[in-house]
Amino acid sequence: MNPYMFVVALIGQIEEQAAQTSGLAIVELIKQAGPIVKLVVFILIVFSIFSWAVMIYKYLSLSRARGSIFEFARKFWNVANPQDLKMLISREANSAAHVVVAALKAKERAGNPSTAAIERAVRQTISEEISLMERFVPFLATVGNVSPFVGLFGTVWGIMHSFHEIGKMGSASLAIVAPGISEALIATAIGLFAAIPAVIGYNYFVNKIRLIGTELEGFGTDLINSLSSGDFFLR
User: Fold this and answer.
1) How far is CA 209 from CA 65, 86, 144, 165, 234, in A?
2) Which distant-in-sequence residues (6+ apart) come within 8 Å of 195 by Cβ?
3) What stretch of H or E contains 71?
4) Nearest-angstrom CA–CA distance, 132 and 124
5) Backbone φ and ψ of 23, nearest 5°
6) In the chain, what are the domain boundaries?
7) Which of 33, 70, 221, 228 has a CA-to-CA distance to 3 between 20 and 30 Å?
8) Closest Cα to residue 55, out of 201, 196, 192?
C-alpha cells in the first residue's frame, strides 16, 4: 500500500470509528489514552469549565451594570435638591453613582468652579470602573489562545506514543494505528471545544465593556459641565 492510500484508509477508519462513537465511547477513548494525554484533557476541561463560569458571570454582571447606569442617569438628571441626591446615591451602587460621588468630593475639596479637579476625578473613577468590569475577561483570551496549543501538544504526544508502540510491535496495520491516533486527536478536539467559546466570549465582552465605557464617558462629560457651571440642581 502506497503512503497516499494508507493515509486515505487511515482517515476513513478514524471517520468510521467517530461515526460509531457516542459520548460514552469518547470517555472510553480518554480512559485508554496515556497519562500525558489524560492530563492535557483534564487541564482543557478545567479551562472550559472556568471560561464558561466567567462568561455567565460577566454576562449577568455587565447586563445589570448597563441597565443600572441608564436607570441611575435618568433619575439623576431629575434630582431637585441635595437631599434627594443623597438618597439616590445611598440607594444605588453602580458605576455612574461612583462617578457622581467622586465628582462631588472633588468639587468640595477644590471649591467652585473647579473644572480641572472635577474632570480629573471623573476620568479616574471611570477608568477604575472599567478596570473592574474587565476583571476575568483576559482569562478568556488566555484560554482561547492557549487551549488549541495545549490540545495539539496532547495530540502530538499521543501520536508519538502510538508510533512508539507500533515500533515495538513491528506492525503498522490500520487496526493498530487508528485507535491510538483516535485517542490522541481527542486532545485537539477538546482544545478547540474550550477555545472557540472563550474567543467568542472575549470579543463579546470587550465590545460590551467598550460600549458601557462610552456611555459612562458621556455621562461624565455632562456631569462635569453641569457641576462646573454651578446649575446642577436647575436641570
Assistant:
1) 10, 28, 19, 51, 32
2) 143, 144, 145, 146, 147, 148
3) helix 35-76
4) 13
5) -60, -40
6) 3-94+131-234
7) 33
8) 201
DSSP string for 139-190 = HHHHHHHHHHHHHHHHHHHHHHHHHHHHHHHT---HHHHHHHHHHHHHHHHH
Distance CA 17, CA 178 (A): 9
Q: How far is CA 17 from CA 34, 171, 174, in A?
A: 19, 20, 12
> Would you state the pLDDT for residue 66?
87
What pLDDT, in 10s, does the model give residues 113-161? 567 888 888 899 999 999 999 999 999 999 999 999 999 888 888 787 7
Among 24-28, 29-33, 85-89, 143-147, the minimum mean pLDDT is found in 24-28
Q: What is the mean pLDDT of residues 90-106?
A: 84
CA 110 to chain centre: 40
